[in-house]
Amino acid sequence: MAEQQKLSKRREMNWLYVLFQLQVNSSAVFAIGYLISYGCLWKTVFFGIFLISLGTLGQFAGAHRLWAHASYKANTGLRLFLMLCQTLVGHGSIYEWVRWHRLHHKYIGTDLDPYNSKSGFFQAQFISLTMDLSPAQQEALKEIDVTDLENDKIVMFQKKWYNMLFFLLVALLPVNAPCEYWGEGILTSAMLIGWLRYALTLHATWLIHSAINIWDLKLDEKFPADTNLVFILTKTYWISYHYLSPWDYQVSEFGKYGTDCVTKFIRVCAALGYATDLKTINSRNVREAVSRSVNEKLPISQCLAEGMQVVEPNGVASKICCS
């Protein structure tokens, strides 16, 4: 930590990343105009929605909840499926994404946070992704423990062959499928399945780090929020809770708890025997954790972790204590 204090926290703009942002977003806007003008087959639209759903599932249930926070365990088949789905996003390997995400959690809201949502939505969603890490952040990144990822053969396989997998699963096969199987035009497929689908999937996954600016209910705000956005968004404290208990598999990336599709997907996988050791906590243990934190002057995150429960496929929850 002392070494990080001596290093510069200034981040330099990476112009290749800037060009990437401009290319992705401008191409998506152009694709919308093209589709309005020339149309497309409905099968292609549904195929695009299907690919977006798979990509976000791989990012949320896989890269985020499984690999970044170990909120549950998955067997080899489920891990392979989630790895392939995450590759569809085209946002980089699981290994690299998890390293940055763990750095974000460790230093959230500081100069060492690569996304720093305290600087606003636009900073977290766009600007932070166009800049290199500062020397201080690069040093901090070296301290992030990723031995669990290095011991995961599926994660390391994706890391080694990511460029080839990107070409096949992001650029080639998805764009070719509508042309090959139901006669969609190649240009239309490139616009909808190529650029527009890619941009929408990327923005959905980037929201993991910027959603706190949209869905998080601040301490001085009312609930329901005193704004017309209440008709579109439901603000809650659950995103803030995620940063206290990132190991809880039930916390949605977008402000819900236990009712979102990703959580239900994990429960289905558990029922089928593909997922085990689902980590969560009940309301009684939360109350005890808050009381203990106040009375014993302990970090609330530590007290919550000590009240963690592991849910098995049969629905039985057992309490475990974390050291």
Walk me through what this model shows.
With 323 residues, this protein is mainly α. It has a domain at 12-219. 61% of the residues lie in helices and 4% in strands. The longest helix has 27 residues, at 42-68. The model has no long low-confidence stretch (mean pLDDT 91). It is a multi-pass membrane protein.
Instruction: Return the string of H and E elements.
Output: HHHEHHHHHHHHHHHEEHHEE
Poorly predicted segments: none
Please report the number of helical segments: 16
Mean pLDDT: 91
The major sheet is characterized as:
3 strands, antiparallel
- Strand neighbour order, sheet with most strands: 3-4-5
Summarize this structure briefly.
This protein has a domain at 12-219. It contains 16 helices and five strands.
